[in-house]
């Protein structure tokens, strides 16, 4: 009987140690899933803003909307719906041709881009000190872009 108790004493506390080893991995996985989900949501918002601005620019009206009004439609849509986490990146929109619609059947393209700064990945750099091993990835690869082309009515 005493052999069983000695084995039980050796095992006490192992669950806490194992939990301590696994917890950082679980948190990393959880934050990664959240970050990726927010990035996908922002991509959908950017795509929708591009589509709405293009649609506003090609609908027949005299005169056709100016490119500044088209850009304003995109940026207003982004301001209402984009999840930014308080990041310093600002979305930008461009219209091609820069004059907007010039006549029926001509293509109008609106391109919207946003430098995504997440919560967990972030920019990787705080005041010049590199804190994140993914910093170069976060700086170079997370610009979300959507482009929509429609023919003017």
Give the helix proportion (percent range).
40-55%
How many domains, as an integer? 1
Beta-strand segment tally: 5
Helix-strand pattern: HHHEEEEHE
How big is the Rg? 25 Å
Summed over residues and divided by their number, the pLDDT gives a mean of 81
Compute the number of helices.
Answer: 4
- Strand residue percentage: 15-25%
Question: Tell me, what's the shape?
Answer: rod-shaped
**Classification by helices and strands:** alpha+beta
Cα distance spanning the termini = 89 Å
Q: How would a textbook summarize the main sheet?
A: 3 strands, antiparallel
Strand order, sheet with most strands = 1-2-5
Unreliable segments (pLDDT under 50, ≥5 consecutive)? 124-129
Looking at this protein, list some descriptive labels:
about 50% helix; single chain; about 150 residues; alpha+beta; two-stranded antiparallel ribbon; rod-shaped; 3-stranded antiparallel β-sheet
Question: Your description of this structure?
Answer:
It is rod-shaped, with a radius of gyration of 25 Å. Helices cover 50% and strands 18% of the residues. It has a three-stranded antiparallel sheet, with helices on one face. It has 153 residues and is an alpha+beta fold. The chain has helices spanning 2-11, 14-58, 67-81, 135-140; strands at residues 92-96, 107-115, 125-126, 129-130, 143-151. It is built from four helices and five strands.
